[in-house]
Amino acid sequence: MSWLKSRRIRYFAALVASFFLLLLGLRMVFLAFFADHHGLVQESPRAILQALSIGARFDLRLALLISLPVAVLAAIPRFNLTKCRLLRAAALLYLGIATLLTLLIHILDFGHYAYLEQRLSATALRFLSNADISTQMVWESYPVVWITLGWLLASALFITLLARIQRRFLERQASVQPNWTRTGITAAVVIPLVFLGLIGRVDDLNLQNPVPLRWSDAFFSGNPAVDALGLNPAIFIYDTHRIAQERYDENALRQHYDVVARYLGVTTPDPATLTMTRTVGPQAHRIQSPKPPNVVFVMLESLGASRSALFGNPLNPTPNLDRLATEGWLFKNFHVPVSGTAKTVWASITGIPDAARSESATRNPFISNQKVLINDLKGYERIYAVGGSAGWANMNALIKGSIEDIQLHEEGAWQSPNEDVWGISDLNLFRETDALLREKAKSGPFFAYIQTAGNHRPFTIPEDNDGFVKLNIPDAEAEAAGFQSTAQLNAVRLLDHSVGRFIEMAKRSGYYDNTIFVLFGDHNGRISRLPFMPPAFELLNLESTHVHAMIHAPRWIEPRVTEEAASLVDLLPTVAGMLGLNYTTATMGRDLQLPPPEGERAVPVILREGAYPLIGAVTRHHLVTMNADGTQASMHDLASGTPLQDVSATAPEEFARLSALARGLHEAARFMMYDNVVDD
User: Fold this and answer.
1) What is the per-residue pLDDT across 485-530, written as a single tens digit (0 to 9) for each?
2) Is the pLDDT of residue 448 over 90?
3) Residues 6 or more apart from 436 whose CB is under 8 A from it?
4) Would you list the DSSP string of 145-172?
5) Which residue in 36, 306, 387, 468 is deepest, having the highest Cβ count within 10 Å?
6) In a 3-state reduction of DSSP, which class is residue 266?
7) Model confidence, pTM
């Protein structure tokens, strides 16, 4: 254990410990100062301790990040901190600047929270646009001189401490001589510890997919004061600086407000406030039952419509899902608003297309607390089940922040072992979720959201697969049916096999007859050739949003095929109509059993993401596309053998109708993401 006597190891450890204790002390000051004023004392000690634990891990990450550059300077062979006074002076200068910035950020954070009840984030930069007014307000509101003196004094004291630590560990003679064995042992111990410190978690760590601690983990309680306690302002600024500050184009939305209000059936339209609110009462088509039906949403990873024989796939990969579809409602022209798992989770829960232009809406901490229709399921227990980590893309922030009393079951909560990067297998996810639902059904109705992941690279086929048999065909044959490879084909088949087994479990467990099953693909995988489908889906990139979707509830509904366009955001309102709910909403989803005010049903899609999106509106017959600013608009015939041809001149009225819907609904979605946030 002589390597523990290393000057450089001890110096690095002391440096990390010093910054960590400084940050932890600042966190405790935050708790003490704001506990009474912001209602933390009303929270349970368990919630407070959990928030402090999350915050402490963020503090450790920042302490490590500050210290690592100095560790690199210490580790350089020959010319390093132990041998060069000039290099030690440069390191101390760097640490001094880091100290000044760290303390300044926390001082500004305290003031920002006292003023706005929000932790400091990148949005605070908006005050720089009115720097003169902001500066005057700060000068008149706070004892700036005393705060500045306190900041400088605290910084000077801490920098003095850092200088003493440097002299104590680096300016003395080495007690052990370095050698390759000792260096190897040091690296083998220190590097994993630093890695775990940066990741911020040691339990339930999937080394194939080590999801680090994220701001969404701090948003576990639904109480903004508790959430704030778990954040580190410096890290939060970094996490939020990448989020686009332009929320929506208000002028464009006002120009198309009448179209959007009519599309949604806004109760009392008001162009001045841009209200999207409407009240929906119980429908005549509601299910007549003395016992409220359960609701189970199953998100089918990467299951595009082209994967199904119902849409012409020659390999018949999904016989179980196709059977369920023919026994219920099959939506032939069903689209997710935009391709992507996190974006589908967002849209399916909120009823709003994820129109974020920087990453996904789930990654934006300012909008993770949405008003959602799931909360109108009064008396329902609510369960979200995912085989891997819900922290991926910060989806857990949306789930916990928006769905009241949600029971989130994720990686680490399951008895089954992880199969790959995505956690436990889909089959085991269904098995363990079925056991949960079997118990829930004894006490009352439940809403469950099951998020599968197996139909995703690396396309793992687990040994425990309940009799699944792989199909061994050449990759070329699979590619001709629209798959990337035979491995992907078998992953689709395994997903279908697992769903079939889940339905059998539900029947044996006794809740099948009283349950509405809603199954939908979250997007399609990247395609190659689709000779069995109309060329429009491949050539216009619609295949990425066109997914397999159905509602299966043989006790309550008769088989039906819906040819009109339908959207992911419509699923919850459709189920609400079946349940006879009375609710108020300001989101985009509509009951698919009600006639659309615009005539032929049209749904919005985003076909190209990023700073310059390509948006569109899809009907059963046409697709209108345009740039997000409305330029380069064109209309395409989905049944045509030459779908790239612009047919807008042949149907100018339809082109005008869909153009207005595409532009208006896109800006409405951007507006809704912020307008629909729960008021604190």
Assistant:
1) 999 999 999 999 999 999 999 999 999 999 999 999 999 876 557 8
2) yes
3) 383, 385, 409, 448
4) HHHHHHHHHHHHHHHHHHHHHHHHHHSS
5) 387
6) coil
7) 0.84
Answer positive or negative: Cα dihedral of 87, 93, 94, 99: positive
> Between the CA of residue 374 and those of 122, 560, 582, what are the distances in Å?
31, 25, 12
Lookup result for tokens 């307000």: 137
Q: Which residues contact 378 (CB under 8 A, 6 or more apart)?
A: none
Mean pLDDT in the chain?
90
Query: Whose structure tokens read 């015939």?
Result: 637
Q: Which helix (H) or strand (E) holds 75?
A: helix 45-75
Strand 406-409 to strand 381-386: parallel, antiparallel, or no bridges (unpaired)?
A: parallel
CB 441 within 8 A of CB 294: yes
Could you tell me what percent of the chain has a pLDDT over 70?
90
> Is the dihedral angle over the CA atoms 148, 150, 154, 157 positive or is it negative?
positive
Residue 169: per-residue pLDDT = 86
643-651's contacts with Cβ under 8 Å and 24+ in sequence apart are 643/534, 643/535, 643/536, 643/539, 643/540, 644/539, 644/540, 647/622, 648/624, 651/622
Spatial distance between the Cα atoms of 353 and 338, rounded to a whole number of angstroms: 7
Inter-CA distances, 193 with 151, 190, 199, Å:
32, 5, 10
514 contacts 492 by C-beta, under 8 angstroms: no
SS3 478: helix
Spatial CB neighbours of 479, under 8 Å, sequence gap ≥ 6: 485, 528, 529
Q: 178: which DSSP letter?
A: -
Q: Which two tokens stand for residue 41?
A: 């004392």
Burial class of residue 397, CB neighbours in 10 A (0-12, 13-18, 19+):
buried
All residues at 6 or more sequence positions from 239 whose CB lies less than 8 Å from its CB, including other chains: 121, 214, 215, 365
Facing residues of 408 across strands?
A: 384
* CA quadruple 315, 321, 326, 330: dihedral sign: negative
CB 11, CB 166: distance < 8 Å = yes
Prior bond of 458 cis (ω within 30°): yes
Q: Are 599 and 273 in contact (CB under 8 A)?
A: no
Which helix (DSSP H) or strand (DSSP E) does residue 448 occupy? strand 446-451
Say how far apart CA 536 and CA 539 lie, in whole Å. Answer: 5
User: Two tokens at 519?
Assistant: 């199954």
Say how far apart CA 565 and CA 592 lie, in whole Å.
10
Helix (H) or strand (E) holding 131: helix 131-141
Tens of pLDDT, residue by residue over 337-360, are 999 899 999 999 999 999 998 778
Buried-exposed string 175-208: b where 16+ CB fall within 10 A, e elsewhere: eeeeeeeeeeebeeebeeebeebbebbeeebbee
| Cα end-to-end span (Å), the chain | 54
User: Beta strand pairing status for 329-335 and 560-567?
Assistant: parallel
Assigned token pair, 19 = 């910054």
Cα separation, 208 vs 617, in Å, equals 39
* 342 within 8 A of 352, measured Cβ to Cβ: no
Q: Quick one: 468 exposed, middle or buried, by C-beta within 10 A (0-12, 13-18, 19+)?
A: middle
In which element (H, E) is residue 625 found? strand 622-627
Is the predicted pLDDT of residue 222 greater than 70, yes or no?
Answer: no
